[in-house]
From TrEMBL:
This is Amino acid ABC transporter substrate-binding protein. SUPFAM superfamilies: Periplasmic binding protein-like II. Keywords: Signal. It comes from Chitinimonas arctica. PANTHER family: ABC TRANSPORTER SUBSTRATE-BINDING PROTEIN, MEMBRANE-BOUND LYTIC MUREIN TRANSGLYCOSYLASE F. The lineage of its organism: Bacteria, Pseudomonadati, Pseudomonadota, Betaproteobacteria, Neisseriales. Residues 1-21 form the signal peptide. The keyword Transcription regulation does not apply.
Length: 253
């Protein structure tokens, strides 16, 4: 009888939970360490922020890892709830909703030390070849690439982009500074990584967000709740602590 009463009590408690307590959201993730990676603690710094912001609203995140171009297409077609992390473009806004900013990063130019690249304006780089990882937006480089003033060498990933740079197949590689330095530390021998440097001036400052598919009616509510969860992290001091951990290297392998 005691066992029966205990079972009934547990059943009542379960039924009394709010409807959102067991909610899940499925997000396409990708390899962009130290921010995102299947092999990093918490799946990387940005993934950790996203997980905790949704968790603060009673939502569990399931991550599936894909190449970036495929992840974006899955959001467009609605075969996943959304993806992280992306910058807003007019084209993406046609098929996706965007949350508040998860993180921001400055894009700099990586190049060979032997190249001694100096520039102040994009026009100073006309006639050169740049690398760009597949799935990355062109951003400030779009006009120069479309006009043919700068040749764009699309690479399958960041590692390949650096490899092409080392082989002399591109002149520079625009990339988020923290991402570039992480890949050089983790993927290349020190004597090879030492051959590459980056510009002191910033090409572009980008804000990155979660984008959710417009194909799913509940996603407007998901954006609102994610933003509310993010504010909770900020007010509690957890977001500031995560940022300190990031710069201390605690999201590296």
């Amino acid at each position: 009888m005691k066992v029966l009463r205990r079972s009934l009590l547990l059943s009542c408690l379960f039924l009394a939970l709010p409807a959102w307590a067991a909610e899940r959201i499925r997000l396409a993730n990708g390899e962009w360490p130290p921010y995102l990676s299947a092999t990093l603690p918490h799946y990387g710094y940005a993934s950790h922020i996203v997980s905790e912001a949704f968790k603060a609203e009673g939502i569990t995140v399931q991550y599936d890892f894909y190449p970036w171009a495929r992840a974006q297409e899955m959001v467009r077609t609605g075969t996943t709830d959304g993806s992280l992390v992306w910058s807003i473009t007019a084209e993406r806004e046609k098929f996706a909703l965007f949350t508040d900013t998860v993180m921001a990063e400055e894009e700099v130019l990586f190049f060979l030390k032997s190249r001694q690249l100096t520039w102040k304006r994009i026009e100073d780089l006309h006639g050169l070849s740049m690398g760009r990882a597949l799935g990355s937006k062109l951003g400030v480089w779009e006009a120069a690439v479309k006009s043919g003033a700068i040749h764009n060498e699309t690479t399958i990933d960041i590692y390949t982009g650096f490899s092409q740079l080392l082989a002399g197949r591109s002149d520079f590689f625009p990339l988020a500074r923290s991402v570039g330095l992480h890949v050089l530390r983790e993927k290349f021998p020190p004597e090879v990584a030492e051959r590459i440097t980056f510009s002191s001036n910033v090409a572009e400052r980008n804000e990155y967000r979660v984008m959710l598919s417009r194909q799913h009616p509940r996603n407007e509510e998901m954006v609102r709740r994610f933003n509310a969860g993010l504010q909770k992290l900020r007010r509690s001091g957890m977001l500031a602590q995560m940022e300190k951990d990031f710069y201390a290297g605690r999201y590296d392998k």
